[in-house]
Write a structure and sequence with these properties.
With 135 residues, this protein is of the alpha+beta class. The chain is built from two helices and seven strands, in the order E-H-E-E-E-E-H-E-E.
Length: 135
């Protein structure tokens, strides 16, 4: 049985988290009003719970569920098994964080009346956006 570890994130928006997960390849993401149990690779119910869940069948044959649980301060913590942390490590969480920030920035800019004029990504994977707001 694989042990689950938690990693604190700065994610506060469930919608942006789900969009970011889709950006990194997880199209099938559950989201619940109340925390649901995670399951291990054998289908065994675990004590860990989360509101945003990528079920193991969408990760890999020997994987456990990956969850994101809302904390008391409104942020989400990632819940990832010791086994899956080999693939879904700090680097992966960094890429997910970048996609989350991108999604949040795009929505915030649109809400403020900005249009995206140009977007690029350099070799270091830094995203640059040129925006314009018409008065």
């Amino acid at each position: 049985m694989s042990h689950f570890s938690t990693m604190q994130t700065a994610f506060v928006s469930e919608d942006h988290l789900i969009a970011a997960l889709a950006d990194v390849g997880f199209e099938n993401v559950e989201h619940h009003e109340f925390p649901q149990n995670l399951y291990g690779w054998k289908g065994d119910r675990r004590q860990q719970t989360a509101e945003v869940i990528v079920r193991r069948e969408f990760i890999g044959a020997t994987s456990n569920d990956i969850g994101f649980a809302r904390t008391a301060d409104g942020t989400f913590k990632a819940i990832i098994s010791e086994f899956d942390a080999r693939m879904f490590d700090a680097g992966w969480l960094g890429r997910l964080s970048q996609r989350y920030a991108y999604r949040a920035a795009r929505d915030t800019l649109a809400e403020q009346g900005f249009d995206l004029v140009e977007e690029s990504m350099d070799e270091a994977k830094t995203i640059r956006m040129t925006v314009r707001r018409m008065a």
